[in-house]
Amino acid sequence: MAEASNSAPEIHGQVLTFTTNVPIIDAEVCVLDREKNFLQCSVTNESGMYSIEKRPPGAHYLTCYAFDASVSVELKEGREYHLTHKKWNHSVQVIDAATGRELKGPATVGKPFVLHIENPLTRDEPQCPPPPGVHMFWVPQDSSFTVTALDAGLKEFVVTYTDRTTGERSGANAKVSHRVSVPVAESVQSVRGQHSVRLERTFTPPTRDEALWAAIRARTHAIHFRPYQHFINRVFAHYVLRREKTVLRGHLPTVEAEQLEQQWNSVKLDLHDVQVYEILQLATDAFLLAAVGVKPDGRPTREMDKDYVTCEYVDAKLDEYLGPSGQLPYISRVLHAAFPEFNGDDGYCFDRVLTCEANEPCLIELIWSYWLEEGMLAQTMNAISRRFQNVHAPGGPDRLAHLEIDPIRPLNNVIWGWAGHELDRLSIRRRAYEYEHEYGLSLYGRAVRGVRPADTRSKFLEAFHNLLYGTWKFYGLDQNTTVIAEGYSVLNALKEVHLILAQGAHNQFRDLPWVARREMMMQQWILARPEIRDFLQSRMMVPYKEAWMPQVDTMKSLQGWTDVTVTHFRDLAVYGEEILLSVRYGDWIGVNDENSAKNWARFWRPEIQAYLHAYRAVTGVDLTNPDTVDATVPAVHLQRRLAIQQGAR
Predict the structure, then answer these.
(1) What pLDDT score does 325 carry?
(2) 619, 637 contact by CB (below 8 A)
(3) Taking each helix axis from N to C terminus, what angle separates 594-603 and 605-619, rounded to the nearest 10 degrees?
(4) Fold of 91-186
(5) Please, which contacts does 451-460 make with residues 24 or more away whose CB atoms are closer than 8 Å?
(6) Which phi and psi angles does 41 have, rounded to 5°?
(7) Whole-angstrom Cα distance, residue 441 to residue 367?
(8) What proportion of the chain, given as a percentage, has pLDDT over 90?
(9) Terminus-to-terminus CA distance in the chain, angstroms?
(10) What is 2-85's CATH number?
């Protein structure tokens, strides 16, 4: 026993994380004297253990360096010293994507769940290679992986963080790995105590365009309101304002970055300056610029890249789909047909005018703005702006005249800027003309009387609703495991809608949807502020998906507008955008395989089913009616329902 004791290291122990007690691997553990001079060094192994064979004379401190922080203990009598990295409070939760609650039982094949990561010390992207039979996406705004299992079994996930700072003495990079086991069950379970006979759906081979749909879903989720609100709040927060200048500079062209920096310098962290409105506009542009492309151009530095890149598996599949040119096959087909002489090296004019738009398609669809327009988002902001300027509402009595505007005093600078830049923003007539041009969708009201578009997509609504009905019918057959559902009817409907959308992709296409999205996202952020909530006295107990929505519903109630909640309009906007983007940018004209249509219908089933439900809730029209395909403009149904609502009072 004496010999064993003498052969043991003079100093040894283990380095663990706080709360979870996970070993920190390759962490540098150093012995220092009283003046903090280095004496001896060791590196932790796979179990987080370190050992120092001989204790240096006069040593006083034992320090571990990892993840931009250190933990120290004073060396006293004894050999064993365990170190706890108290700042590294890392945990992984398994959450049901449908309910947002912690997943208690097994996950289900085909239904997404979320690995949510709590780690306040770093915002770096963790590494988590997908186990076999799993699709994964990194969602930086929520610090989580969205996971979909393709088969049943126990799925082992290893979430690893690697310290970007190399140890000064050892040259090692510290790592923390957290293992999570998630059981996955088949979507059809046997009834308790009984043996079940199960018929399974016919296998459909995967197709190349699935990578595009995954990219569309990831990009549209990246510009939802919650990540946008979080981004803008960080920009305006005092303690990170200067740091955000560095982050935004990597996403903006040089001229816009310098302009944004000048705005920051003029504000000097005083949020009561009217120029805050201009900063809000520039920051919104920066947010959209960083998130709306199909795929980031090239490989930026890791600091700039970590917030907006999906997992490596999807990147590889997307590279395979885009091909050597890096263009969407649909874009390449259009260029080769319209410009057979086109070559990227033939001249500067073609190189900038054509390839700039072709290689960087903007994943924004104007139907998002249309449905929020019908949901009274813009009208709500206009009413608040009028009341702020003490302007009486047109028509009868002003419903906001009795409301005191004192609660919005802290927001005066933003609303002042909003009112002062009214002439610089898109008018409702300008948007109405583009709704007609791209979709043949009309708006009704005093502000859009006399709108006479030169070009309109009169067949879009019929074709789109026919696609939705055909897809819904396919779902019914696909659920029946005794038959094999055919996909050619869905494929033909996809081609029809694809062609109509392509006919409207001219003139203001891309530019107007961008500006409309920017302005409406700014409206959402303003309406989500607690000052507006207190001003309108919104209802607190109604469950809404986004913070701006209660204020819109309250305004609709005050003004006597439609009593359909804005939740359904928001669903139509979000899901309609994702569906149309997958139809617009897919190379459907070059597809003659029904498997692509089948996979498309199955991939977008949650969005399509939600759109069908929201459309019925808003217009009262059931698009799954087998007797007829409704092609009436939604504004007509909304006017009819409003007349019935007002007549019942």
Answers:
(1) 60
(2) yes
(3) 60
(4) Immunoglobulin-like (2.60.40)
(5) 457/500, 457/503, 457/504, 459/500, 460/497, 460/500, 460/501, 460/504
(6) -140, 150
(7) 9
(8) 32
(9) 94
(10) 2.60.40.1120
